[in-house]
Design a protein that fits this description.
- With about 550 residues, the chain is an alpha+beta fold.
- The chain has four domains: about 5-15 and about 460-550, Immunoglobulin-like (Sandwich); about 30-220, tricorn interacting facor f3 domain (Immunoglobulin-like, Sandwich); about 230-315, Zincin-like, CATH 3.30.2010; about 320-440, Neutral Protease, domain 2, CATH 1.10.390.
- It has helices spanning about 245-250, 255-265, 305-315, 330-350, 355-370, 390-405, 410-425, 430-440, 445-455, and strands at about 5, 35-45, 50-60, 65-70, 80-90, 90-95, 95-100, 100-105, 115-125, 130-135, 140-145, 165-175, 180, 185-190, 200-210, 220, 225-230, 235-240, 275-280, 285, 290-295, 320-325, 425-430, 460-470, 475-480, 490-500, 510-515, 520-525, 530-535, 545.
- The protein has an eight-stranded mixed sheet, with no helix packed on it. A five-stranded mixed sheet has the order 17-18-19-21-20.
- The radius of gyration is 27 Å and the shape is elongated.
Length: about 550
């Protein structure tokens, strides 16, 4: 029989200070501008990489200023980029300037402000990035949107920032041999034989749920596609290169079950369908809303992509439906998806127990910190690609795992569900997540969020123990040896017993103690009614820490 009892030492609560949890990036936001809807018409062809575009943008403008700023990369010295021919309001041209990647538009006095109106941007050019026009591994021409983090501006006039979510539709004209997939649902598909053009097919996809531009995409290729299944009425589709038909349908088949798992765990799925798409994305996977793109070599027919599928599908809740309001809070996307994938694996993938996953991630976090000692929320980062780091993924997952240990399973998962419900199809900052978790737990958690997200590093622990046979006590000396910051955390200690007498084989016992460590040097005496063979700290992998190597003690 295992004896479990807990010794609680007083907790030092640190108040949250202004900083990382509240900080915003340097994107020039206009609080008076709100994009409501994009209607992108895109003409593609096989004779050139030049695209023709038309963007109908529905927006609301408040305040007194009539100046609207949009993002679109202009033509560069390599000849790539977009050239705007005109911008109209109704049928009337309006004044604009286009320099580098910024469009400035002056809304005429005839428009009532505050008000809602539609402008249409007519443009054309060769995308420098964002829309990847290339050949796939079979040598076939393909077109794939690849917008993260702010690369949509290479081919779409937009507010290219996650804080301004909008509904979207894509009306794509392309040669008949192609199939087109996008966000949302298929609204129409028809043959177009306009005079002076080769026969083309027009495909119209429409997304009625607001999403950020980072996940607004099209995929155009010689696809084979099928419905892999339904998840609570949501169609789950597989889109793969025609040459990979059988292998791709096999590899993407688990997606319906994964979607159901996360609906049961977190809450309702936000989008009209889920398409899993073999693509030319530069990432291993890209979580475009309802239209996930996976790297083309994800298809091999071995049905071994459960973890990849689970990570990207988890993003449909966090990153897509709940979107970070600021680039530096991308852990809300990547940390959540990483942890949810580990929870899925714990339940569904043999050999992938949660403590095994977390132990591996802990090693990654320690190695990463040794190379680059930075906090999870690092407002000094200006290259957004650098935000895709071990801090955002694995340490972000560890933050959630430790919060779960502090609050308990029931409170933690209720908090995750409440956070999703409160910010579904909206934007959130880390401070919003903290507020939700404080409300559901009825605790002040400023110390927790500050030390794990704003402070670089983790506890480095040196410790020793002695056993007093006469008093039946264990004396433990523990010291945090990392520089500068002293962490506060719960620590589980396991006393593993051995028989008091060799012949007494039924007296083997063990004890679990949970203590709050809130100072650099920590001493505790634990009573034990059995002979102790060993002492373990954090036996179940619940704390992000590094044990000081013996050679350094």
């Amino acid at each position: 029989m295992v004896h479990k009892f807990f010794l609680i030492v007083s907790v030092l609560l640190l108040s949250a200070l202004p900083g990382g949890l509240f900080a915003k990036d340097d994107y020039p936001r206009n609080p008076d501008l709100d994009i409501l809807h994009y209607c992108f018409r895109v003409n593609l062809n096989d004779s050139t990489n030049r695209i023709e575009g038309e963007a109908g943008i529905t927006m609301t403008l408040k305040g007194n200023s009539r100046l609207v700023r949009l993002d679109l990369l202009g033509v560069n010295n390599k000849g790539t980029g977009m050239n705007i021919s005109r911008i109209v309001l109704g049928i009337n041209p309006i004044v604009f300037s286009h320099k580098n990647d910024v469009i400035e538009i002056l809304i005429p006095e005839t428009v009532k402000i505050p008000g809602t109106f539609i402008i249409t941007v007519h443009y054309a050019g060769i995308p420098a990035d964002g829309l990847i026009i290339s050949k796939n591994k079979f040598g076939d021409r393909t077109f794939f949107g690849d917008n993260w983090p702010d690369r949509a501006r290479n081919w779409l006039p937009c507010v290219d920032h996650p804080s301004d979510k909008a509904t979207v539709e894509f009306i794509v004209s392309a040669p008949e041999k192609y199939k087109v997939v996008s966000n949302g649902y298929l609204a129409a598909e028809f043959r177009d034989s306009l005079a002076g053009r080769l026969p083309a097919k027009v495909t119209h996809w429409k997304e009625d749920v607001p999403i950020p531009t980072k996940v607004m995409v099209i995929g155009v290729a010689d696809f084979a596609w099928s419905t892999a299944g339904l998840s609570k009425g949501i169609p789950v589709q597989s889109w793969v290169y025609a040459e990979n038909r059988d292998a791709g349908f096999t590899d993407y088949l688990p997606a319906a079950g994964i979607l159901t798992f996360f609906q049961d765990l977190v809450g309702p799925y936000s989008y009209e369908k889920l398409a899993n798409v073999q693509s030319k994305t530069k990432f291993g996977g890209m979580e475009n809303s309802g239209c996930i793109f996976y790297h083309e070599n994800s298809v091999n027919g071995n049905n071994q992509q459960h973890s990849l599928l689970a990570h990207e599908i988890a993003h449909q809740w966090f990153g897509d439906a709940v979107t970070e309001n600021d680039w530096h809070h991308v852990w809300i996307s990547e940390g959540f998806a990483t942890y949810l994938e580990a929870c899925y694996a714990d339940s569904m993938i043999p050999g992938r127990k949660l403590n095994v996953s977390m132990a591996d991630m802990r090693k990654q976090v320690i190695r990463s910190f040794q190379r680059s000692p930075k906090p999870v929320i690092d407002t000094t980062i200006t290259n957004k690609m650098e935000l895709l780091s071990t801090n955002s993924y694995q340490k972000g997952a560890w933050v959630l795992h430790m919060l779960r240990q502090e609050l308990g399973d029931k409170v933690f998962w209720n908090g995750i569900r409440d956070f999703y419900a409160a910010y579904r199809d909206k934007n959130a900052m880390t401070s919003d997540f903290q507020s939700v978790m404080e409300k559901v737990s009825d605790r002040q958690l400023g110390y927790f969020f500050k030390q794990w997200l704003e402070v670089p590093g983790h506890p480095v622990i040196q410790w020793s123990w002695t056993y007093n046979l006469l008093k039946n006590t264990i004396d433990i000396e523990l010291e945090q040896t990392q520089e500068q910051y002293s962490f506060t955390f719960p620590l589980t200690i396991k006393l593993a017993g051995s028989p008091v007498r060799p012949e007494d084989t039924n007296s083997r016992k063990s004890g679990y103690y949970k203590v709050w460590v809130n100072e650099r040097k920590f001493h505790i005496s634990l009573s034990a009614d059995f002979s102790v063979a060993s002492v373990l700290i954090d036996p179940d992998c619940q704390l992000l820490y590094q044990e000081k190597p013996e050679a350094e003690k």
